[in-house]
Amino acid sequence: MKRTALLAIALLLGACQSQPHYTLQAPKEAFPTPPPPERVKGQTFHPTAGARAPRNVSSAGPLKLAMVGDYMDAQEKDLRTILRGASIRRIGDDLILSVPDKGLFSGEGLSARGSAEMAQVADLLRHYDQSAIQIAGYMDTAKPESDALEISSERARAVADVLVADGVGARRVTYQGYGSQHLRIATGPGQAEPRNRRIEMRIVARPQT
Prior knowledge:
By secondary structure, the chain is α+β, with helices and mostly antiparallel strands. Helix content is 33%, strand content 18%. It is built from 4 helices and 7 strands, in the order H-H-E-E-E-E-H-E-H-E-E.
């Protein structure tokens, strides 16, 4: 009887130790500061002058296909913790993070608040490092479509630049501007609608085969 009880306890402890703990709050060894961003053909990144040195962030570790659901659950939970004002949707195992451009940008670049928010996102993405980030910029119909397309592209690139400058591998990041396509709130031409001016990030798991 005693031997059976000891065996049960040992099996229970082994099962607990095998459970993945992805969240940033879990104790892990810190990885060294990542190397400088890699350059991706067709995309030009411009790390912000005087940008902060990325803080050491541990990796959530390797990702197998069977672990994707738990991995993205933990990433979604952490995103909701650090970005309380943002919209976060789940489509299958993909996460869609939507951030209004109000307060995010100042002129052509990110505002101080926007840079601070993206620095937190960058830390999280460096922890969940087995994922790709697709950044899309959207505008309303207040400006001609050619202008809206240019502005949305510049803003999507500005977010990509900051993430890469904060240590997210450039090969993980893509960006594109869509102008006034894919309006969240349907309006006619020439209409200013703040809810249509936004940045969306699609975070896609990239499990190892």
